[in-house]
Amino acid sequence: DAGITQSPRYKITETGRQVTLMCHQTWSHSYMFWYRQDLGHGLRLIYYSAAADITDKGEVPDGYVVSRSKTENFPLTLESATRSQTSVYFCASSESAGWTDTQYFGPGTRLTVL
Amino acid sequence: SQQGEEDPQALSIQEGENATMNCSYKTSINNLQWYRQNSGRGLVHLILIRSNEREKHSGRLRVTLDTSKKSSSLLITASRAADTASYFCAGQGAQKLVFGQGTRLTINP
Asked: Which of A49, A68, A99, B50 places its Cα 20 to 30 Å from the Cα of B94?
């Protein structure tokens, strides 16, 4: 039972480069989420998806793009990475109504933008 | 804007003692959830309390919710070294689950 996985776990990139963070869940959960975690800010929602081909912005979506062509995958792309996007990124999924259900988190991707 | 704000930001106690963490939030919520994060790991859901509930228990965890004060507390009884982690409250309002900055709990042997 793999649950929810993220790849890569660690990534170092340079300013201006495109980076894609992968998220895969094996539960067929409808909802998926991307958060970033920074000291002093806790977790902030970047984007979420209620189902395949349905995505919506969260609190801090600027500079990020998401897609969800398949229920189990929810990649997050930084189109032109900036230093301010250095952070730990967490993907999460939720079974049904989303907001009243618990969220299951992946292990995180630590991204450093030089 | 943060929905939840935890207090204290850091807490250090001896093993066996009880740990209490508080959370305040700003707007109306449908439920409030508590999560634990071990160092370098993702968050793990601990307990959910709905807005019409005042108290909930799960094992050594006790959560209270006071909607009139927009506050919640998490009590961990008989703490263990394995409870060392960061604890986050998250308020679920209109279509959003918003996390606080967390309380870092250290249990000393």
From this structure: A68
The full length of chain A comes to: 114
A 95-114 residues inside an 8 A Cβ radius of B: 99-100, 102-108
Answer yes or no: is pLDDT of A87 > 60: yes
Rg (CA), chain A: 13
* CB burial of residue B68 (10 Å; 0-12, 13-18, 19+): exposed
For residue B97, pLDDT over 90 is answered with: no
Nearest CA in chain A to B6: A42
> Which positions ≥6 away from A83 have C-beta within 8 Å?
A15, A113, A114
Backbone phi, psi, residue A85, to 5° = -90, 5
B21 φψ region: left (φ > 0), alpha (ψ -120 to 50), beta (else): beta
pLDDT, tens digit (0-9, with 9 covering 90-100), for A49-69: 999 999 999 999 999 999 999
The answer to whether the CB atoms of A105 and B44 lie below 8 A apart is yes
Question: Would you state the structure tokens that stand for residue A77, as one six-digit string?
Answer: 């792309």
Model confidence at B1, pLDDT cuts 50, 70, 90, reads very low
Least CA distance to A38: which residue of chain B?
B101
In contact, B6 and B89? CB cutoff 8 Å: yes
Say whether pLDDT at A41 is over 80.
no
Asked whether residue A90 carries a pLDDT value surpassing 50, the answer given is: yes
Give the count of beta carbons closer than 10 Å to the beta carbon of residue A57: 13
